[in-house]
């Protein structure tokens, strides 16, 4: 769908592009990710099966994501666009779109994972002195955060048992960010994102997260069967 290049992620998406180098502790704390875009390797497993491959991820605060899943030769196989609870799946080759909510997604496409994407890219809590800290969130739920001795966040666990692991920190746009993110939903789904040369806080064209649907057949997301 994106001739110019999307996920791209979450994400979520976070991040490589240069060799790992020592970083100052202050460079990672309190950094707000407004936008994130870049290539990513994806592994998604759930009780319904497993898929893996390459894609492009776009993220824009507070809760908009787009993941373009690519075929081996770079063609976009499927676009998944998430904004809050709203989901849009696109297959440009068929000029078909499926609209619905996160709960309408087939389990094979990470019904349990997508609602966690906003959480995993939140600015980190400040470290220490303890390597394990407990915070009460604005909604009253409790979150545990684990740090390494340098003060980098290694793991977060929320009140329902969802957890996310951060590793392979690299410098990106003068910020230390994890190149590998692993999300384990309490319901059994697992998503691993490994980023390559992401761009942080750069403009994202409106049409990427809100694509025009002229000429598309629009169907309910509940009818989408996945790949």
Please tag this protein with its features:
45% strand; outer membrane lipoprotein receptor (LolB), chain A; 13-stranded mixed sheet; 227 residues; single chain; mainly beta; globular; 2 helices
How would you explain this protein's 3D organization?
The protein contains two helices and 13 strands, in the order E-E-E-E-E-E-H-E-E-E-E-E-E-H-E. With 227 residues, it is mainly β. A 13-stranded mixed sheet has the order 7-8-9-10-11-12-1-2-3-4-5-6-13. Strand 8 and strand 9 (153-157) form a beta hairpin. The longest helix has 4 residues, at 117-120. The chain starts with 34 loop residues before the first strand and ends in a 7-residue tail after the last strand. Residues 1-30 have low confidence and may be disordered.
Summed up, what is this model?
The protein is built from 2 helices and 13 strands, in the order ββββββαββββββαβ.
Overall pLDDT confidence: 81
CATH level 1 name: Mainly Beta
- Under CATH, the homologous superfamily reads Lipoprotein localisation LolA/LolB/LppX
With strands numbered from the N-terminus, the spatial order across the biggest sheet is 7-8-9-10-11-12-1-2-3-4-5-6-13
- The run of helices and strands is EEEEEEHEEEEEEHE
| Rg value | 17 Å
Number of domains: 1
